[in-house]
Amino acid sequence: MDEIIRAVRDCPSGALSYGIDGVEARAQVDWDNGREPAIEVSKDGPYRITGAIPLTDHRGEPVERAEGSSLEHYALCRCGHSQNKPFCSGMHWFIEFKDPVPDPDREPTLFEWCGGVPALTRMTRMFYEKHVPEDPLLAPLFAHMSPDHPVRVARWLGEVFGGPKLYSESYGGYNRMISQHLGKALTEERRARWVELMSLSAQEAGLPADAEFQAAFRSYIEWGSRIALENSQPGAKPPPNMPMPRWWWACDATPRSRVSALATDDESAAAQVILPGPGETVGFEQHVKPLFRERDRTSMRFAFDLWSYDDVRANAAGILEQVKAGTMPCDGGWPGEWVAVFERWAKTGMAP
Question: How many CB atoms lie within 10 A of CB 317?
Fold first, then answer.
């Protein structure tokens, strides 16, 4: 029953409710203790509205809703294909709506990469509601936490991973988290099981499985759980007023730091290459830049940017040497006419 109630309360649409002994419990569904007004843009999905924000039409009149719908939380269409505008009807799943591709020159935060609070909440609910109650080591400690504990932990992780300060603003920051571990006398065996089941929950909740995210995610839960173990021991005196941890990608292993062995060749790349005529000036933007694929750029980002005129101009001699030798790109040499175009550009003034 508790799981059903939580599922109803977590549904962003506001269309679900539940009753006990034939009486609707709308006040409990709508968080009768009140939530701060908030608007969240969900990954590849709708706007999630919470906190009883009024919804009006262009005349300032309340938008009509289905009978029984929540006024405290609802979801608004963002894909443009809803069958129940302005509300979300789930069409984003069917049309495979995707958010715009992020700026390739900006690395996403761990928070953005994993899917934000909704993804982290799926994971913590999986952990506290499925795995913990069934585990003889962890159940005595965690099976009877407050109903909103999974949300609290998700907000903590979100803030640590570079997201908004939801934990600090709602619960009190680092000191609050430390207070939850004092005197608990955790054991290494329990800590290791916590890490094991949290990693399993992340997998089941669909968090990214790429090597880069998993390296950062697992390094944090190992680090954080060991700090919690230390702080929980009898007589421990954690330093007060420490800042919130901020976690980033591990050792520069970012999502675009390597080319995946499973990546497919961009078959359209060759079609983008325009070879200059015999007397035509070879230009970087028109003729040289298209020679480098996205995967070539990614593999060299540690050194310089193959799509940057200034970078390629500064490294033209070295690049020419490698393309002539067939060692760049690393997965196969250029056709002879491409090498000739780059050499001609490098020896004729390297026009922009």
Answer: 8
Whole-Å CA distances, 161 to 109, 117, 142, 158 = 7, 11, 23, 5
Amino acid at 62: P
Q: Quick one: which of 132, 172, 175, 130 has its CA closest to 155?
A: 172
Q: What is the pTM of this model?
A: 0.65
pLDDT digits (tens, 9 = 90+) for 73-124: 999 999 999 989 999 998 998 888 988 776 666 788 999 999 898 899 989 9
Strand segments, DSSP code E, in the chain are 19-20, 23-24, 38-41, 47-50, 73-76
Domain ranges (residues) in the chain: 2-94, 110-252, 269-347
User: Yes or no: is domain 110-252 CATH 3.40.50.1820?
Assistant: no
Cross-strand pairs, 56: 62
Q: Are 160 and 149 in contact (CB under 8 A)?
A: no
Whether the Cβ atoms of residue 273 and residue 291 lie closer than 8 Å to each other: yes
